[in-house]
Write a structure and sequence with these properties.
CATH class: Mainly Alpha
Structural class: mainly alpha
Low-confidence stretches: none
Mean pLDDT: 92
Radius of gyration: 13 Å
Distance between the termini: 30 Å
Number of strands: 0
Protein name: Mab-21-like HhH/H2TH-like domain-containing protein
InterPro entries: Mab-21_HhH/H2TH-like
Largest sheet: none
Number of domains: 1
Shape: globular
Amino acid sequence: MRTIDFNNGIGKMVIRRLKKLKDVEPALKVINSYAFEQALMYLKDDHHDALFWRENNMKDILKTILLFMENALRKGNLPAYFDKHNNAIGGLTTEQKIQLANRFNRLAANPDIVLKKTD
C-alpha cells in the first residue's frame, strides 16, 4: 500500500511545507491537506526517479505539485487516490477553484519564494 511517507520521509516533508504554505497564504486556507496528499500520491506514481524525490530537489518537487494542483483545480476534479469516485476538491466552489488555480500558478512560477515562506 502506498503512503505519503517514502524516500526517507520526503513525502511528509513536502506535506509539512504545503501545510505551512496554507498558514502563511490566506487564499489557500479553503483547501484541505487531504487534497495535497492525494496530489502527492499521484505524483509519486508519475515520477519514479529516486533522484527527483530528494530533499535537495524540494524546489522542483513543490513546483511540480503546485502545477499539478493548478491543473486539477482548472479541471474541477482531483479524484481521491484510493477511491476515484471521491473528488478531493469537490467541496470548493467554482470561484474558489479558479482563485486557487491562479494562486498555485503564481506560486509555482516562484518556487524560491515558496521555500522561503515554508522554512
